[in-house]
Design goal:
The structure is a homodimer. By secondary structure, chain A is α/β, with parallel strands linked by helices. Chain A is built from eight helices and twelve strands. Chains A and B meet through helix 4, strand 8 and helix 6 of A and helix 4, strand 8 and helix 6 of B. Chains A, B: One of its GO terms (molecular function) is uridine phosphorylase activity.
């Protein structure tokens, strides 16, 4: 395969402006237009094998989360909430041909799983963004609904992320491209965060707050846990680090928000991160709550997003 | 939760020597012994809820791979190869209570999925290594059987990794722990790699070779692909980077080998990485082979590992 790269970035800027005006999803890759076919390998979809505009053209909301079961449950919940016809139990996984991710469509809502960690979500986002581009979707809002560890807040609290930060509390995402380190901004859409916070005020069953979300590459050592297979630091050092994170504004810790924020921002998608906390990391490391309690916690971001989507749709 | 960290590392070194002599899996975390219970959250197992020595004490081989379906197929294949009784179709997922990973046990062989990317496999490895430790397993060999992109070798080739390298072609794994960057060696067991290469000489159906494996944090930009949602480099720059990787000894590219090598090495597990290549990255970026061809390719590392296990068991 040989592609030509335009040696001027001007056409792309003009194109971006057009996309912005039209509300289209912006793919920042001049090679794509030169491809005869685009196989979205990890979604088991493609431009020649599927009519992507017909399948996805009406999408306005994309919700992503780590667990396939949770994203199926969210799709079934939205089916009920939007009052759609048919049995939500028969809902078909659009990516059934692969076990890397699962995907469900409920009216204008797409629900997709992304696995755990930055690399896993980044593969999905590359292919999802290309899908939205090929399908000519307009004015798409994308929200990650996830689980996380809390910092200084009660388990079950829902955190709307204002800024995603790395392990050094910086609003940056670093990626190595052809052995150059590229640094990208992890700013999220502040208006969308505000709108979600407004919605949350109508829900009295659980606390919702706005704060920084720290994204790490490891669940154990990388989040200062004492209960991994490897640990070389003391409880005192752990608490000192977590308290510094708290003082820097961090209210929860997860493993996908920085790359999610960076990629959505570059591609003109209005993005938000809404995670429930399963424990308070200042109190411990192990997730000891019962299955029932954890299941109820995980429904909280879904409730908030459902309210938001219904408001946006004028229902 | 409060843990005490021994202020001297001497007892741990003595302990490690004992572990080595006994062939036990080495957990390098003094806090673990002080815990009343250990919940392996992402595996849905625990020391109080499960009799781990009874369930897993006889494990000698652990095989890990990204895709849940592939690791189930491998378990079913090993069931047949080891001539075990019962119907392999009824095989139960030991981690059925969670959808993060799947796990199957076939005699002394454990088959586990790990999802995609360094963070996803690292969560599984922390919990797997603790599981092997709690179950008092001895003389365990662990092998990652995966898929990868090849460099200068034909699609369908099987690569046995001698050294896992990062995006800068260095045999290092970097992790941020309490905002310190920790660098770990990614050396793999050379005797095991030799033994696997020996086994491969008995298989004439596909080529197997030994080479460096490059591990990246991204499938698209991070591997120099021109077909992601984002791409800011030319085909010439891409090929220049991939050729430099080839000249540094890299024969395939995947997304888990560095952390796999680093963690197994620290915990005294003899580890190998055996991946099939789905395409030659010097020829293109998209995976265009048919489903049937890709399925056959993915069986190749399984065939090799089956032969190796049967030899080790004297079958």
């Amino acid at each position: 395969m040989t592609f030509l790269l335009p040696d001027s970035s001007k056409p792309m800027n003009t194109e971006r402006e057009n996309y912005k005006k039209n509300g289209l999803v912006y793919v920042k890759n001049p090679h794509l237009d030169l491809m005869d076919e685009d196989i979205l390998y990890h979604l088991d979809l493609g431009t020649k094998t599927h009519n992507l505009p017909a399948m996805f053209g009406d999408i306005k909301f994309v919700c992503v989360g780590g667990s396939p079961n949770r994203m199926k449950a969210f799709a079934q919940f939205m089916h009920k909430e939007l009052g759609l016809e048919g049995d939500s139990k028969d809902m078909k996984d659009i990516c059934a041909g692969t076990d890397r991710y699962c995907m469900y469509k409920v009216g204008p809502v797409l629900s997709i799983s992304h696995g755990m960690g930055v690399p896993s979500i980044s593969i999905m986002l590359h292919e999802l963004i290309k899908l939205l581009h090929h399908a000519k979707c307009r004015d798409v809002t994308i929200i990650r609904i996830g689980t996380s560890g809390g910092l200084g807040i009660g388990p079950g609290s829902v955190v709307i992320t204002d800024i995603a930060v790395n392990s050094f509390f910086k609003p940056q995402f670093e990626l190595v491209i052809l052995d150059n380190v590229v640094v990208r901004s992890t700013e999220l859409d502040q208006d969308l965060a505000e709108e979600l916070l407004d919605c949350s005020r109508q829900i009295k069953d659980f606390p919702t707050l706005v704060g920084h979300t720290m994204c790490t590459y490891d669940f154990y050592e990388g989040q200062g846990r004492l209960d991994g297979a490897l640990c070389s630091f003391s409880n005192e050092k752990k608490l000192e680090y977590l308290k510094r994170a708290y003082n820097a504004g961090v209210r929860n810790i997860e493993m996908e928000s920085t790359v999610f924020a960076a990629m959505c921002r570059l591609c003109g998608l209005k993005a938000a991160v809404v995670c429930v906390t399963l424990l308070d990391r200042l109190e411990g490391d192990q997730i000891t709550a019962s299955h029932e309690v954890l299941t109820e916690y995980q429904q909280r971001p879904q409730q908030l997003i459902s309210l938001f989507i219904k408001k946006r749709l004028g229902l």
